[in-house]
Amino acid sequence: MAFDAFYMTCVLEEIRTLQDIRVEKIHQPSRDTVLLHLKHREGRTKLLFAANPTAPRLHLTFASPENPPEPPMFCMLLRKHLSGGRLVDIHQLPMERCAIFTFDCIDEMGDMVRKKLVAELMGRTCNLYLLSPEGRIIDCLRRIGLDESAKRSALPGLNYQLPEPVAKADPLCLSEEDYVNLLTAPGADILADRLMDTLGGLSPLICREAALFAAGDCDARLTGADPVIWGQKLRLFFRENMTRPAPWYYAQADGTPKQFAFCPIRQYGHCESAESFSALLDAFYTLRDRKDALRQKGQGLRKTVQNLCTRLRRKMAIQEKELQETFDRERLRQLGDIVTANIHRIQRGQTLLEAEDFYDEEMKLIQIPLSNTLSPQQNAAKFYKDYTRMKNAEKELTRQLELGEIELTYLLSVLDELNRAASEQELEEIRQELQQGGYVKADAGKKRMKQSKLPPMRFESTDGVPIYVGRNNRQNDELTFKMARKDDLWLHAQKVHGSHVIIACSGKPVPDDTVTQAAQLAAYYAEATGGQNIPVDVTPVKQVKKPPAGKPGMVIYHTYRTVIVNPYPNIVVDPLNAEKKQP
Known about the structure:
- Helices cover 36% and strands 19% of the residues.
- By secondary structure, it is α+β, with helices and mostly antiparallel strands.
- Strand 17 and strand 18 (501-503) form a beta hairpin.
- The longest helix is centred in the last third of the chain and has 45 residues, at 376-420.
- The protein is elongated.
- It starts with a helix and ends in an 18-residue tail after the last strand.
- The model is unreliable at 572-583 (pLDDT under 50).
């Protein structure tokens, strides 16, 4: 990510284009996030401040994050001082991610006063300050005491101190000669590192882009370089991109933005432009925050299922060891025969019998331990009883291991579903599935809102044929055995956990492209989604059967054909459930 000082400059320019901005509402959805609801001549929008050290930013947003039941104290303070205020000035410190927003507000006496909201978004020192007209700190998002190891204290009542100026050069103010001197001066040998150490307001991503433009390699070294030519190219790169910036991003295969900057990102290959700088940040972080929140909400279920899998594997390992021990039971029957044959030689209370082993070709003498509390007949019967117990144990352990393998397969499929869940409703359906299976207890005394049943994902092939994909095990069963017709086509990734896929063809011939696209969906929504050349089985729905007492989502089939595909979801569209993937 490249939310550096110059990207912040671009965002602030977008905010300045809005006229007559007034603060309507103020919310604080999380500890580090403040949201100002703004009204301006063109309508309404929201300004987000994120003072999170891991992802500091500010931008206009259309997202509506959930607010806590009770607003935090800092949010109440901002409402008291800034509600109804008019934004009159925005100032940014040179080459620094620090912006000062000035508001004209009405105080308790009805007088007009000028207050400032300072957003410092520099790494670990991220903070939001509310300042009085005299420059004193009314309060701040993160208080820093006098005795802490910090260069500046942040407490109510103290005078606000600006961050120390950046002791680096401004890329726009350097001439070609300055760039030549930069390249020939002592310092780091890698060009991108030299730019990072010398120029201010730039992220490592932009420095690598500049090195790629000037030297043709992100990791180019200064050894043997032509400083004059590289200096000319560097000056051209910064002048072109910093005087005419534009929002660019590099996206992953699923369309999720991975990197963003105010210039094209060529080091990753193909990149795309966005509508605006704020829209790019909004799409990037909104999607990421949603995924993070969803992952955190599903963490409890995921940990429960992982613990169940661990316990089940441990139990199966013990059963496997016990099963191995039953394979030697034939010797118990032989020892029983030897004791029976020599029963006339055994005295009551005897603990050891030495006799010939007539099951051995050489008739060697063996010693057989006996119990002194049992009679000779009872000692012989004990060997036969242990033999019978081992024989029965083999059957039961074999059955228990088969059941354990089925249960483990089911739990692993649930774990795969949790990793692929894309909404809270999907998590709730998986929770209900586990509750019905007795793996998770229902929350005592906690009433959950009744939600509408989530439909399967619906896609449409390039030939116009509907394709349905199940979201979880229960939905897979419903899709295959209730919704699908007997003459529809059923697809599933071979020998891995995944979604059931139905081509709704009603017995009509299906074009090869449609089968390929449905198979690609089956490979994508399966445990092996990260691999290549994944086999996918294709068969009519009538060939798919539910095994007796089978777990949700488990099926058996014997007649099928297999296609080899790569998981690639973008060849089809989801007109009902698709989300906008690019900003």
